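FORM 12-B: Structure-to-Sequence Request
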């Protein structure tokens, strides 16, 4: 059983009648794990390859690549063609975790149930392993995506660039760091979440859909879906930081309080935060209902539900 499935198992649910979410996750998770394992071949020196593999193959829910494959299928595409992009998205995500854990950022020593990359390989190597994963992600799309029309790959590169840089991950992280120890309002908190976490989740569904040849209308619906799940995902992350243990999370619990960060539970309380996350997931699901709750949209609908029911 793959890491993706093991970590989603306890809370997985069916979503649409007749759709077996557990089986879907088992299959998609196994495809993603195999592709990730095969993705790092030619890297030299060996020490760099080892540091990249250490974090990339450390497990994790693999939510981002699975979202990418599911969106490609919803658009009517062959999700096999989206595998290199799914790998690229997990590489970018893993890079962001490595950098986020550095002493200059969140300064953490536990990630995915293991010592963080810099604890094992040193800070300089962790930075470089992250850099190599980020650049390798673009190589996966540009040079290792056979069978996908060049204009679709170009659109994917555009989405990945926007999600990773100042308009996405980096911008969100900068504002997050600037706000530590300060009073933050709901609008600023939403900005942080939508950029730091939401932007990459949005890229996952848009990139998958672009490879599948989605219409402009479907891309719009997916933008609404992605906004809902992106914000909901981070609200639940904030809640789990307070309610779950480090053992279950595989990362240090209680970090937000320790770093004096503003979070949804801090601003709204746990119950209201949970209600807000559920409302956002309902909005996300509503955007995809016209595309067939019992059919091709079923995996994305079930993945949206998983976001609020997860325990890690
Ligand atoms: C250099 C492009 C570039 C970016 C770095 C460090 C940074 C900028 C951004 C931080 C982004 C970050 C770590 C956001 C948190 C997102 C989040 C909630 C991660 C946890 O995701 P899960 O729960 O983790 O899906 P697993 O381990 O299951 O994959």
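FORM 12-B RESPONSE
SEQUENCE OUT:
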């Amino acid at each position: 059983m793959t890491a993706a499935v093991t970590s989603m198992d306890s809370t997985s649910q069916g979503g649409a009648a007749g759709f077996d979410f557990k089986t879907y996750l088992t299959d998609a998770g196994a495809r993603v794990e195999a592709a990730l394992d095969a993705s790092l071949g030619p890297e030299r020196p060996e020490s760099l390859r080892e540091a990249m593999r250490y974090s990339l193959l450390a497990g994790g829910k693999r939510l981002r690549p699975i979202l990418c494959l599911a969106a490609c299928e919803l658009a009517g595409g062959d999700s096999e063609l989206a595998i290199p992009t799914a790998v690229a998205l997990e590489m970018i995500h893993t890079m962001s975790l490595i950098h986020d854990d550095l002493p200059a950022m969140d300064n953490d020593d536990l990630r995915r149930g293991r010592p963080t990359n810099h604890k094992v390989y040193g800070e300089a190597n962790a930075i470089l392993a992250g850099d190599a994963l980020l650049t390798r992600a673009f190589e996966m799309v540009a040079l290792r995506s056979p069978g996908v029309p060049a204009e679709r790959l170009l659109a994917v590169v555009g989405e990945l660039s926007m999600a990773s840089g100042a308009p996405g991950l980096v911008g969100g992280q900068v504002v997050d760091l600037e706000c530590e120890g300060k009073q933050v309002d709901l609008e600023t908190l939403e900005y942080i979440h939508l950029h730091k976490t939401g932007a990459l989740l949005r890229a996952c569904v848009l990139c998958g859909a672009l490879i599948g040849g989605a219409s402009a209308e479907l891309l719009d619906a997916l933008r609404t879906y992605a906004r809902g799940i992106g914000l909901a995902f981070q609200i639940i992350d904030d809640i789990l930081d307070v309610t779950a243990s480090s053992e279950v999370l595989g990362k240090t619990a209680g970090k937000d309080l320790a770093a004096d960060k503003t979070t949804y539970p801090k601003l709204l309380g746990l119950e209201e935060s949970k209600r807000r996350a559920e409302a956002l997931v309902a909005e996300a699901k509503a955007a995809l209902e016209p595309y067939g709750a019992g059919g091709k949209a079923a995996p994305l609908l079930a993945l949206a539900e998983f976001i609020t029911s997860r325990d890690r």
